[in-house]
Design a protein that fits this description.
The structure holds two protein chains of two kinds. By secondary structure, chain A is α/β, with parallel strands linked by helices. Helix content of chain A is 33%, strand content 17%. The chains are: A alpha/beta, B alpha/beta.
């Protein structure tokens, strides 16, 4: 362990504070401060601890939500899908048996696990946070070290509140300049993935910083960190600052009163030291980022909305096969501008872009017109809390009046484990995080990732448009 | 709670070319609507196989019974679902040789006692070409010596030091090691201000 005067990154400070011991394997046994679970990746883990005769070591540090497969139309029990109902009962039983708090529909606080953690104040700077879901990186926005784990590790956390893990390297990702109008955190995170590649982050945690990140709201930082994993980085974080503390002040699970002030002192001390050394650094000019749209089958295959779809002939040999595969699947024409690509479905929601600021930005665009005839447009708030705020502000009415469906919270069409699915070859303008083949529920369905405002604009135009022409 | 020591994976191999194969591809989300992993093997690469209309590696009879899957770069990217390695294991694969693996996928494999090793581009192509030419050959991944032996000779494979030790020692199922920390877990947890109270 290094002495206290050696400058450290936030990553190293959090890692050191949570180290239980070094293992014979060379890995570290790391204490997990907050464990979030959901209905898809936790039931098998509970079955495993039952089989081993183990209990839950820190039941008050695990929180369960129901998000992945919950319908977004009616929640009346039993759910019409018997398997979804079985999963729901299973998680209710597990929470009851092991005394774990459940944020279910009845609690009035249900939502996507990565939306409710922050909004409840469960996510705080300096924590380690794990969840059986790759988008756990979202919580890094608060200066937490947060990462996705598999079900065997969910079992490990349930039984021991620790996991065995090797430390990551840290890459500083600096975004300079100032974002233009109509350019959002979603565009920034997509641009970073385009530059560094879908596997550029393997072995790294990303520390995001620079003027563009400093100016971002907490919700924008969550969008940014959410997609660290799409660039291969298991975790991404932003150093905590005044924006972080103001967001956390008064949240139900934040420290209250004087304890909050004491917490802020501790949180501030967790930020990377000014002279901390990084294993790698990358810089991007934020002023050059355009509203961004994916054209392919992984999130790095993206361009500015006015750029032309690439051709396999334009790229080096080693990239040719993947571009051809993507263009064949997407059935898009090389050389054509992305703007103008017709769409069938519009989806606003997900752990990437299902928060109140996303709803507001999309509603701002929805006010300008009506959803194009023949386009199916869904708005799925990330949580009950988001839905309630949106409804108080009348955003639901704006969406409905424009022809969007206003749904109940959940993961919905991001991964389509519930009834919200693409049909056949439908192409969807989506504010979610993955444009993988078949991701949105139809094995041949197609996804164009973009910001929520861009999705709303596409829904109205019936095709991809530059949101700056509408705003 | 010690697990089986894993020194090698030996058997026939199956080549599935292409980079960035995500876990949605390996096991589409709609098949995860289950509370156990039991049925995962039945749906391995289901949509990819359908789309390939009989030309997917899994539909090539020559690869039937293969234990090792040879893949491209960034295999297993995307969702953290352990359903993906579960599907691969239940289908019959115990070892994976690739250009690179996504981190969470590789971690999940280790936790299940499945072996992932990497090869540089040139060697990976050599191995793929050879196995495609003669799928009946035996391929061996030797973890201790970090080598892959096949018809044409021996290649040096990459595996993280910690993972190698876990497999060789039989500590890939970390539960035993983690429990051994005893009260050290509470000591670390309770020293954290957010656990003990600000």
């Amino acid at each position: 362990m290094s002495d206290s005067k050696t400058p450290k990154t936030l990553y190293q400070k959090v890692w050191d504070a949570h180290t239980v011991r070094e293992l014979t394997t060379g890995q570290t046994q790391l204490f997990i401060g907050t464990h979030l679970i959901h209905e898809v990746t936790s039931p098998q883990a509970f079955a495993m601890i039952r089989e081993l005769g183990l209990g839950v070591r820190f039941p008050k540090r695990t929180f369960e939500s129901v998000d992945h497969m919950i319908p977004t139309d009616t929640r009346i029990r039993p759910l019409s899908d018997p398997m979804a109902e079985a999963m729901m009962s299973e998680l209710e039983n597990n929470c009851r048996d092991y005394d774990i708090e459940l944020f279910d529909v009845a609690s009035g606080q249900q939502g996507i696990v990565h939306v409710i953690g922050p909004e409840q104040g469960l996510t705080q700077p300096g924590m380690t946070i794990a969840c059986g879901d790759s988008h756990t990186s979202t919580h890094g926005a608060f200066g937490a070290i947060a990462f996705g784990i598999g079900t065997s590790q969910v079992r490990d956390v349930l039984a021991t509140q620790t996991i065995a893990m090797a430390s990551l390297k840290v890459r500083r990702v600096n975004v300079t300049g100032k974002l233009g109008p109509g350019v959002y955190a979603k565009d920034v995170t997509l641009a970073i993935i385009r530059e560094l590649g879908v596997n550029g982050g393997v072995g790294y945690a990303y520390e995001y910083g620079g003027p563009v990140i400093d100016a971002m709201s907490m919700e924008e930082r969550m969008t940014l960190c959410n997609m660290a994993i799409e660039g291969g980085a298991r975790c991404g974080y932003v150093n905590p600052d005044q924006i972080t503390y103001e967001y956390l002040r008064g949240r139900p699970r934040s420290p209250q009163g004087e304890a909050f002030d004491r917490a802020v002192v501790q949180w501030s001390a967790m930020a990377s030291d000014a002279d901390a050394v990084f294993d790698d650094a990358f810089e991007l000019d934020g002023s050059s980022i355009e509203p961004t749209v994916t054209w392919g089958i992984n999130p790095s295959q993206n361009l500015g909305v006015n750029d032309r779809i690439p051709s396999a002939a334009d790229v080096p040999d080693e990239e040719r096969a993947s571009i051809s595969e993507a263009l064949d699947y997407m059935d898009l024409t090389p050389g054509k501008r992305l703007a103008g690509t017709p769409i069938d479905v519009a989806f606003i929601g997900s752990c990437t872009n299902g928060r109140i600021s996303d709803m507001r930005e999309a509603a701002r665009v929805a006010k300008t017109g009506k959803v194009k005839e023949g386009v199916r447009a869904l708005v799925v708030p990330g949580s009950h809390e988001v839905a309630k705020m949106a409804e108080d502000e009348g955003l639901d009415e704006i969406f409905r009046a424009a022809g969007f469906q206003w749904r109940e919270p959940g993961c919905s069409m991001c991964l389509a484990m519930n009834p919200d699915k693409l049909q056949g070859r439908e192409i969807c303008a989506s504010s979610s995080n993955r444009n993988f083949q078949g991701r949105q529920g139809s094995p041949t369905g197609r996804t164009l990732l973009m910001s929520p405002a861009m999705v709303a604009a596409a829904a109205i135009a019936g095709k991809v448009v530059d949101v700056r022409e509408v705003l | 709670m010690a697990a089986r020591k894993i020194e090698n994976v030996k058997g026939r191999a199956c080549v599935s070319r292409g980079d960035d194969v995500d876990t949605d591809r390996i096991i589409p989300a709609r098949f995860m609507k289950e509370v156990t992993f039991e049925t995962m093997g039945e749906h391995l690469f289901e949509d990819a196989r359908k789309a390939a209309k009989g030309n997917h590696a899994l539909d090539n009879e020559a690869y039937e019974g293969a234990q090792i899957l040879v893949v491209g770069k960034n295999f297993g990217c995307g969702s953290s679902r352990e359903h993906a390695p579960q599907a691969l294991m239940r289908y019959g694969f115990n070892g994976f040789i690739g250009g690179s693996f996504a981190e969470i996928f590789a971690g999940n494999c280790t936790a299940m006692g499945l072996v992932c090793v990497t090869l540089p581009d040139g060697d990976l192509t050599k191995l793929m070409d050879s196995v495609e030419l003669d799928p009946t050959q035996e391929v061996t991944i030797d973890i201790d010596t970090r080598t892959i032996t096949y018809r044409e000779g021996t290649l040096t494979a990459g595996i993280a030091d910690g993972t190698r030790v876990q497999l060789l020692e039989g500590t890939w199922d970390a539960m035993g090691l983690l429990l051994d920390a005893g009260d050290g877990i509470e000591a670390t947890g309770n020293a954290l201000p957010y656990v003990s109270g600000y």
